[in-house]
Amino acid sequence: MVVLFGxxxxxxxxxxxxxxxxxxxxxxxxxxxxxxxxxxxxQEIRDxxxxxxxxxxxxxxxxxxDGGLRAEALEILNRIEALQxxxxxxxxx
Amino acid sequence: MNxxxxxxxxxxxxxxxxxxxxxxxxxxxxxxxxxxLSPSQLIHQAVPGRSYQLTGKVVSxxxxxxxxxxxxxxxDRAGEESVPVRYTGTVPDPFREGxxxxxxxxxxxxxxxxxxxxxxxKCPSKYxxxxxxxxxxx
Amino acid sequence: MAGLGRVALILALLVCxxxxxxxxxxxxxxxxxxxxxxxxxxxxxxxxxxSAFIVLEVAFLSNDYAFNTVADSSSATTPLxxxxxxxxxxxxxxxxxxxxxxxxxxxLALFLVKGRLREVAxxxxxxxxxxxxxxxxxxxxxxxxxxxxxxxxVEGAGLDPLLRFSTMLIHPPLVYSGYTLCTIPxxxxxxxxxARKVDAEWIKATRRxxxxxxxxxxxxxxxxARWSYAELGWGGYWGWDPVENAALMPWLVATAFIHSLxxxxxxxxLKVWNASLVCAMGTLAIMGTFLVRSGILNSIHAFGGAxxxxxxVTLIGVLIAASIYLxxxxxxxxxxxxxLDSLISRESVFLLNNLMLVGLCFVVFWGTYFPxxxxxxxxxxxxxxxxxxxxxxxxxxxxxxxxxxxxxxIAWRRASxxxxxxxxxxxxxSALVALGALLxxxxxxxxxxxxxxxxxAFVVGTVAQELWRGGWVRSRAASQMLPVAIxxxxxxxxxxxxxxIVHVGIALLFVGxxxxxxxxxxxxxxxxxxxxxxVGSYTVRYVKPTASVTPQSDSAHTGxxxxxxxxxxxxxxxxxVTTLRPTEGFYDSGEPSEGSVGHLIGxxxxxxxxxxxxxxxxxxxxxxxDISAPSLQRIVEAGNKTISMMRPEEGMIAIAVxxxxxxxxxxxxxxxxxxxxxxxxxxxxxxxxxxxxxIAMWPAPSTVVRRVSVRxxxxxxxxxxxxxx
Lengths: 93, 138, 725
Description:
heterotrimer; A: mainly alpha; 3 helices; C: alpha+beta; 6-stranded antiparallel sheet; 5-stranded antiparallel sheet; 22 helices; 65% helix; 10% strand; globular; disordered C terminus
């Protein structure tokens, strides 16, 4: 009984005893969110490519869709880079 | 038609279809359903020719096999009134005296004839009543 | 030991309370360490509940009858395997199972999202601990598995013989895993709404959990159907029983959600719909647990005391109110980013699919809860039968199968007719070929079943075409053999092709359902030895009776006192096909009032089905020996009078005499004989469905993601170069 209680206490209080909280970085949450969006965009690009190879999209349709998707992906990558640069600046100060 | 108008039209059509189908569903459920009655309710309300779902407990020592037909009586869960049932068809494994059953019946004379294969027996309660020798302590 | 269990439950309750507090405090005050502590409370809860479960399990395995649940559900003669599983045969034990599974799955889920979705996960932690805490409180205040009686009884009541089947004992943990897994997307969905972060991160995380819930719940449902078919003597796999329906409803919503989530992913649409679906899925899972555990609906399964009804209804009410409040108050972040471009598009097909699935769920819901609805409306409880369910679910199912064939080949956003024609031609031809084959073989009746067969051919044709075309393109590009190329295609596009495989499985499953229900042959004759009966194109002859007497301490069997049965010879057009040996087991009732011999066989009677399964049909049989026949009852009564209750060995001798009498001059026995065409396709289809689901769930190899990122990166550097120039 005591053992169980002790184990529970140990598990639960470990983070509270941590000396310093991890420095999350200024924009960590936004960067994570953008990275998730980026991954989804990559998946879409691959799906569109596969659709095109299989003949579900005509060449013109595919060019339009693919171009649009890649532009969106680039935009996301740019935003990630900007935020990473900004948080690097913050850390340097 | 501009796109916004098209979308509204689509939405209205879809909603109307859904409402119509739901109404058909609801209406037929009320007309297709068999009322669930206990034996005492059945005695007072049953009309020949209509199907009812009889629910209650099988009366002890009332079960008799006569060839293909199973005769038994069903009583109120908490009461004494009981009705006789003549049933043909599959008898579920858990069926025995004292168990709760559900069977679709039609009144025929003074008997109630069970619809073929409509007998359902409830699985016995998960906590069995303790044998008299046990004493429960909290 | 029981004391340890009781303390563990209280400790669990405290851990839940702490975890909820820590998580909410942590997220409100933006302190990571409190959020982490809250998450770790879930891990700690899992440790505590597993310990409690082990205590109960040990009690069962060591026959500790001081525990009330052990005394109620187990006995010395219960075989070991069933003893271990009898833990969840009782109300209290099954609550502990639910709570433990919930804590384990929640721990896994929170561990997998560690470091991401910080705020959402914190709220989700609190919600999941709330659920676990609810079930632990039920145990602490209403139905404690660790109650004991002193002095302990000498022997237990034994596990109900109806439950002594292996599938029945894996089924509850699987279904409960499904139900508890459904609460995880619910928790993350509500957490996302509370934190106002319904976005890509949430989509990615939720998709996997929803798929896992869908998978486990689906397997649980199919196992339940298989148990019903192979072990129960009524001759079917689905009866629209309330408890079957209770598990089906969240599964249907989960299927809809998995599809509509893809639309939100790709086009940022249907956010309100998805938020509502995820709340509905979790709420229906709790309602399903409630249905099984309370006695509110007449069902062969409904067990459990009325005492649990009020807490459950309260919880469900809170869930519904909270869901509505969250969705309405967050509707600004749930606005669609795009609109439906064209009715001829994959989005459109997915939308229709969702409507069909939700419609199916509504039909099942209405029919299941109708007794309560009609009581509220007319004052009279009434229930609808299986034919009512069939009438509405069959057309919806047909449309669903059709959509599952069209969906894969139609493009996103907008498909042109030319493209559609090109992609649907071959599958349509397969459907027509199937139709021709069926008509040619003389199958003219049951038009709905024929339509289902053709639609299934359509779906299989679609998927085959997708695999073929994709494989061909890849084999040309990578210079591989076609089968290798196809395997690689599936490996690199697991979500898509896993999904296609699921569609094939569903199509085959429905073929099995349509064939076995529309073209079933049945006969319920009462036969004497030597007589035959015709069932469909088969002739079944009652060759001779069987009887066996198993000693009560025989742990190899399921513990029945007496087994009576028959040997049946099945032939077709004069040629021998197979031999079936159905039996019925008679168990000890433990009631002294039935007499020293009477009680040995006066308990539960359990049918042991015998069937011959091939890919084209099952021949299924069950027997009801007439144990109440006068010739046999004479022996029982004589035994009751002369044998004392204190001499069970003599009682068994009387049973042996009875068995011999049954073999010598058996009274006519009632048989339940059925021929089910293609019923095996149901089980095969189900396995394909779950295989496909596993493939879809499997994380994609990281090389795939890297390849795309490299290509996009190269383009980016090029565009930068252009910009600078």
